[in-house]
Design goal:
CATH superfamily of the largest domain: Gcn5-related N-acetyltransferase (GNAT)
Number of helices: 3
Order of helices and strands: EEEEHEEHEEEEHE
Strand content: 35-45%
CATH topology of the largest domain: Aminopeptidase
Radius of gyration: 17 Å
Shape: globular
CATH class of the largest domain: Alpha Beta
Largest sheet: 6 strands, mixed
Oligomer: single chain
Structural class: alpha+beta
Mean pLDDT: 92
Low-confidence stretches: none
Length: about 170
Amino acid sequence: MDIRPDEVESVKVIGNLFGNDVKLVKTHGGFHIAVGKKKKNNSKTEALAAGSHQAIVAHQICKEYGSDFQPALFKSEHDALEAVEDRTEYLPSEAITKGIELFTLSKGEHHEFILYKRGVTLAKYEATVKDQALILKKYEFKIKADEDIAKAMARIIEEKAEDLGVDIIEKGWL
């Protein structure tokens, strides 16, 4: 896959793998590709992971390379990537077999609940904490979720509210 310079929105270093920078390339369409050297003695830079969300791309590299990948320290919280919690185990086994994953992403008071498959976001809820409530601000579904997947997403939202110590979950849309 070749990416032309006019397709690149930004490039930033997200970590270090085998003593070499891992860079995250974001395209104007919102696709993220992490590039670096897959082996210590490689001279060639290759794609390490790719997807629709930068934090999940970094999480995939952490899973694949373990302690060989050292995430970057960012100068400000604004630049830092979201904390990723893999909640795939809540999905029905048929969904997991199809390669579907479920994640919770958190950064400050902002939280996202993402249904993901092979680098593509299938469904997403965005939420913020305000006045002891988790407010669901926005949602997007690119697939029709069956009842078991919907229950898994509801469960991780409820658990996140509990972890945050809030008692109320509210819809922030009409």
